[in-house]
Amino acid sequence: MAKLVECVPNFSEGRDKKVIDAISEAISKTVGCSLLDVDPGSSTNRSVYTFVGSPDAVVEGALNAARTAFSLIDMASHKGEHPRTGALDVCPFVPVQNVSMDDCVRCALLFGQRLASMLHVPVYLYGEAARSEKRRTLPSVRAGEYEALPEKLKQDEWAPDFGPASFVPSWGATVTGARNFLIAYNVNLISTKEQAHRIALDVREQGRGKGQPGVLPKVQGLGWYLEESQLAQVSTNLLDYEVTPLHTVYEEICCRAKELNLPVVGSQVVGLVPLKALLDSADFYIQRDQLFILQEEHKVRLVISKLGLDSLGPFNPKERIIEYMVDQGAGDQVLVSLSLRQFVQSVAARSAAPGGGSVSAAIAALVCSLDLLPTSPDLLILWISSRALDLQTSRPLDLTQTFSRPPDLIQTTRPPDH
C-alpha cells in the first residue's frame, strides 16, 4: 500500500482569484501530488488548500506553493478576520495511509528547513514537531499575530526554529508541524461578532483564561463576522473529533445561542472532513430522534441536514469527505508509485482496475524509455503479443527477461551524436 500524507497549507489570501489559482497550479503541477480541495474565504482573507501524496511529494508541493506565494502576497497590506502570522501562515502534515506521525514530523522538519533556506524567512515548529511544550499549540505560537513579529523576533524565547530571527515585512513567519486530522468547523449565527465571540469563549477548552475553562475539550474557538454572508460565526477547530464530535459542538452552541435569543442558521466545514466524523454524528441523531437509517449515503445526508452544512453553499460529499477524495484524486498517483512487482500483483487482483489499459500504458512507457521506435505500429503490437505469450509458461516477473533482448522487428533510431 502506497504511503500517503495530507498537507493543508493555509495562505493569507482569500480574495484575489489569480493568486489563489496560481498557488493551486503550483501544487497541481508537482509530481506525485493530488490537490483535493481549495477553500477561500473573503472576510477571513485566507485560503485553505488540501492535497495528498507521498512524504517527499507533499514537501515539494508545499515548497512550490510557498515559492509562488512569495512573489504574490504582501503581508504588509493584509487585513482579514482570521488570526495570521505570515503569507503561508501554517502548513501542517497529517498521516493518511501507511505512514506514521514520525513520518509527518520528518516532513515538517524538512519543509521548514528548506523553506527557511529558500526564502530566508523565519519558520516555527508546532504540534507533534514542536521542540518545546510552549510551542505545541498554534494559538500560542501565533500569539500577537503578524503585527507583533518585529518585537517577538527580538526575544530569545521566540527565536525561530529555522531561518533568520529578522522581520520580513512581505512574508511574516510560517508555522509548520505535524498533527492528526483537524476539523475546521464554524456555526452560523444571526448576531454580532461580539456575541459570537462570547459564545466561543464559553465553549472552547481554553475558556476565558486561567480559572475559567470552557466546556468542550480539544476545541479551539473564536467569533467573527462574515461581511459577504451578513452573519457571524463561532469558528472552531476540533483537535480530536472523537473526544468532542461535530454534533456536540453544534448542539452546545445552539444551547448557548438560545440563552441569548440568537438564531442559529446552519454551519460550515472548511476544507475536508473525515467520513467517521459525519457517521458518528449521524448515529447520535439516529438514536436521539429514533430514526431507522442503515445506508452510509443516507446517514451523510442526515448530518448535512441536521447541521445545516449546506447553509452557505453546496456540500457535495464526494468533494468534501476526505476518504472519498483520496480514493478519487490519489488513485492514479498510488498506481504510479507501485513497484513492478506490486503493479503485477495489483493487475492480478480480482478487481476491475488496473486492467488492460494500465498494462498497455505501462508497456508503452517501458518501450519509450528505451528510445525504441517501431517501423510500424502493427509490428510493435505483434512483437509485444508474441512476448506476452511467454508469460503462460514462465513466472510473471520473467517479463523483465523476456524484454531484455532488442527485438528484430524494431529498429533503434537514436539521434546522432553532435
What does the model show?
GO terms for molecular function: folic acid binding; formimidoyltetrahydrofolate cyclodeaminase activity; glutamate formimidoyltransferase activity. Pathway: Amino-acid degradation; L-histidine degradation into L-glutamate; L-glutamate from N-formimidoyl-L-glutamate (transferase route): step 1/1. It holds the Pfam family FTCD_N. Strand 9 (about 220-225) and strand 10 form a beta hairpin. The chain has 16 helices and 13 strands. The longest helix is centred in the N-terminal third of the chain and has 19 residues, at about 100-120. The chain has about 425 residues and is α+β, with helices and mostly antiparallel strands. Helix content is about 40%, strand content about 20%. Helix 6 crosses helix 7 and helix 8 packs across helix 9. The strands form three sheets. Strands 1, 2, 3, 4, 5, 6 and 7 form a seven-stranded mixed β-sheet that branches. A four-stranded antiparallel β-sheet has the order 9-10-8-11. The chain is globular, with a radius of gyration of 26 Å. It has helices at about 15-30, 55-70, 100-120, 140, 145-150, 195-205, 245-260, 275-290, 295-305, 315-320, 320-330, 330-335, 340-350, 355-370, 375-390, 400, and strands at about 5, 10, 35-40, 45-55, 90-95, 125, 175-180, 185-190, 220-225, 230-240, 265-270, 370-375, 410. The protein starts with a strand and ends in a 6-residue tail after the last strand.
